[in-house]
Amino acid sequence: MAASCVSCGAVVSRRLLLRPRVSLAPRQVLWKAAELQSVPGPQRAIAYLFPSGLFEKRARPIMKHPEQIFPKQKAIQWGEDGRPFHYLFYTGKQSYYSLMHDAYGKILDIEKHKNQLQAKGLFSEKNKTIDLIGSRWLIKEELEEMLVEKLSDQDYRQFVRLMERLLQSGAAEEEFVQSFRRSVTVQSKKQPIEPVQRDAQGMAFSTSEGKRKSAKAEAVVYEHGSGRIKVNGIDYLLYFPVLQDREQLMFPFHFLDRLGKHDVTCTVSGGGRSAQAGAIRLAVARALCSFVTEEEVEWMRQAGLLTSDPRVRERKKPGQEGARRKFTWKKR
Amino acid sequence: MLKGVASLVSRVRKLDPGHLRLGTQAPQSLAAQLDNQVSFESPRAISCTNENDPAKHEEKHEGLHYNLPLQDVKTVFPHGLPPRYAMQMKTFNEACLMVRKPALELLHYLKNTNFAHPAIRYVLYGEKGTGKTLSLCHIIHFCAKQDWLILHIPDAHLWVKNCRDLLQSTYNKQRFDQPLEASVWLKNFKTTNERFLSQIKIQEKYVWNKRESIEKGSSLGEVVEQGITRVRNATDAVGIVLKELKRQSSLGIFRLLVAVDGVNALWGRTTLKREDKSPIAPEELALIHNLRKMVRNDWNGGAIVLTLSQTGSLFKPRNACLPQELLGKEGFDALDPFIPIQVANYSPKEFESCIQYYMENSWLQHEKAHTEEGKKELLFLSNGNPGQLERLCAYL
After folding, report:
1. What pTM was computed for the model?
2. Are B259 and B153 a contacting pair, CB within 8 Å?
3. For chain B, how far is it from start to end, CA to CA, in angstroms?
4. Which residues on B lie below 8 Å from A251 (Cβ)?
5. What is the ipTM of this complex?
6. For residue B226, with 0-12 CB atoms within 10 Å meaning exposed, 13-18 middle and 19 or more buried, which class applies?
7. pLDDT tens digits, B145-189
8. Which chain A residue has the Cα nearest residue B318?
9. Which residues form a coiled coil (chain B) (predicted)?
10. Complete domains list, chain B, with CATH
11. Contact B385 A250 (CB under 8 A)
12. At what angle do helices A153-169 and A94-120 cross, to 10 degrees?
């Protein structure tokens, strides 16, 4: 058991500390918590290092499950006589091939069952297909982890094809198939929608912010309007003389087919002209979420209107002229 | 790339049937052509009008284009049209101007001017690309039709920058001559006002140099000829022309229209320098000095129509569009009092008319340009600004 010595901070074995003859510290200080509580110096150190106190249960270090730390290994796969236990040991990937064999066996069983029913005339076209939406097949790494074996890409693809064939032949082996699927969370629920506010005249509007590179923008979108946009009090045609920036502003409205229906007043600062245009576009898209159905919000998210652009200017590194550009290489 | 990202709500657009017909093969011949003619006529009614005389333009013609005969254009506007408009004219093979509110207002004032009173100054101002120069051209066409004498300076900024040869003026040692610009202007003036040049007689004797002089009573045409042939005296010729016209317009033989585009050049700064690299003030240029005298309202028998322009201006910020900002204190005081007329962006009706005009001339080839959504996009991107719209449509 290792413990840290309070006065010199070195990790010292507990057994050594209990034997007073072997002392690694200038003063023999035994690490007994009860005694140390009264000594002022260590008391301050304890208060600094363990703010919740020494005995707080909730402040105990949380350690991962050993299964997560130590990788899964295979147990010995042959007996004392050297004969392997598994019948497919000599294929090299015994679990993978046995899994494929089992799955194929199940397919054959289902078909045999179906043929029997058809022969008896009791077969009915029951459409009991398993719902695949909201879940995905295991990825290759997860499958490898499950089987504790290395797989190649072709093996993985073959596995997925076999599973899909199993699904097609019938809904009998649902649990077996579901054990190889993981659920996928729906993304759009995470998008916060701004509430609609009303101002003094009773006009409905909504506000939100957007950022791009170092430009910050705040947009106020009015629900009923004629398509006028004012940026920092200036008309957008004068503020953005370049067509590209005005196209950026147009994108959210054009996507939702609401080109002449909203009025926008926004303030923007920082960045360059492109960054400001991008920031306003994001702010306007977020503000428009509150006037629009959830389905359209999902479409906007998929179109990339609601994601803030993570690209920022890369720092210049020493020894290079820029972020990526190196100095001119001279042969001699 | 943005225009290619389709809305996720997929709507199938039907192609305009007229559009399909236009691209078909030869055997379709007469019937198809007649069909095309028919479909041609009806949109024409929306954007064009047959009333080609500016004197008869009224409120009901607002937003419609009227045709200027090309012959007129050559005489009245040898140098006056903005370059982009001239290109458009060459492409479409016709000159069509839109009748807009500021022009109508000015026409109304001009029709009701009292020629006994001193000349009134009208100043057209507005944002960049809203149509100030073309409104001025409309007015000039009207005055030409009414047989006024037109003194049109297409761009005063050309006289204060990029001038290669500056001569010391023979008339006044402190001032500078600009022979090239003056001679070019005299040529164009001659083209516009041929018929007046022989009628007007000068009332004073002018001496060009030791050997040449011009007698009292000879026609203005001779002065102009002298200026064109002897380039050294061109600036002085311009000065004489201006002085005489000013003096004689009060007599009532003719009516004078002074039209200056970019009048803020007269009171701004110049980029011209003397040999010792010291800057020249506008007053020291003879042309500018004479023009300033012309724009003063101490004469009667005509009108003065001016346009402010930031585009060619020197040392003025881009967002300056108001008279106070562009003229400066000096200019504003010199022009005070004047009637300001604001030229604004297109109204929805005018915008629609402009798009129709482009579509008739098959200028918009993009298939989406014909749809409602395409028009909304264009409206958004140009915000109704005529100049921006024209540049946008050039890409389609």
Report:
1. 0.71
2. yes
3. 15
4. 2, 5
5. 0.77
6. buried
7. 888 888 888 888 888 888 888 888 877 788 888 888 888 888 888
8. A238
9. none
10. 115-342 (3.40.50), 348-394 (no CATH)
11. no
12. 20
